[in-house]
TrEMBL record:
This protein's name: PITH domain-containing protein At3g04780
InterPro entries xref list: Galactose-bd-like_sf, PITH1-like, PITH_dom, PITH_dom_sf
Alphabetical list of PROSITE patterns matching this protein: PITH (PS51532)
Lineage: Eukaryota, Viridiplantae, Streptophyta, Embryophyta, Tracheophyta
PANTHER family: AD039 HT014 THIOREDOXIN FAMILY TRP26 (PTHR12175), OS03G0795500 PROTEIN (PTHR12175:SF5)
Domain PITH: 6-177
Single GO cellular component term: cytoplasm
UniProt family annotation: Belongs to the PITHD1 family.
Length: 177
């Protein structure tokens, strides 16, 4: 299998991880209560361009997303407007109970600087090796495109696979003797 074929195979096996989010544990710090996390993350809401997750006191947002099973995270889609959409996004794998006071104490698993194409829906491919056994994901939106006080996020979608997923067709049957 060539490198191109294996990269394509990885792409094909990536699914939207929406069904594996543990909704009871999802948190978002500094969200405007009238424009909450559900607007950007929940099915249906995140497809509605009129709904946004908005920051409240300043431009920063700290989002915690636990999963119902261990996942491998491949890429993330974060949509927003050209002015108020997120710019610098730091991602932390399996870091619980982070707050604005300690978010800078930990090195992020990956950092993305979102381009206008990303804000329109182009996925940001992550450092895949850093996201192999993810039980929870913390997303720290540090700033936005224009430096304004309010950050607006129209959609967040996580793409990857569950760790338990094994392609049974790809396994050779072992004969018992």
């Amino acid at each position: 299998m060539s490198a191109v074929e294996s990269a394509t195979a990885i792409q094909r096996s990536q699914a939207d991880l929406l069904d594996f989010i543990d909704w009871s544990g999802v948190e978002c710090l500094n969200q405007n209560s009238n424009h909450s996390m559900a607007n950007a993350l929940k099915q249906g809401y995140r497809e509605d361009e009129g709904l946004n997750l908005e920051s409240d006191a300043d431009e920063q947002l700290l989002i915690y997303i636990p999963f119902t099973q261990v996942i491998k995270l491949h890429s993330i889609v974060i949509k927003g407007s050209e002015e108020e959409g997120p710019k610098t996004v730091k991602l932390f794998s399996n870091k619980e109970h982070m707050g604005f006071s300690n978010v800078n104490d930990f090195p992020p698993s990956d950092t993305a600087v979102l381009s206008p194409d990303n804000l329109k829906g182009k996925p940001t491919v992550l450092k895949y090796v850093k996201f192999q056994n993810v039980r929870s994901l913390t997303i720290f939106i540090e700033d936005n495109q224009s430096g304004s006080e309010i950050t607006k996020v129209q959609k967040i979608a996580l793409h990857g696979s569950t760790v338990e997923t094994t392609d049974m067709k790809g396994l050779k049957k072992i004969e018992e003797h």
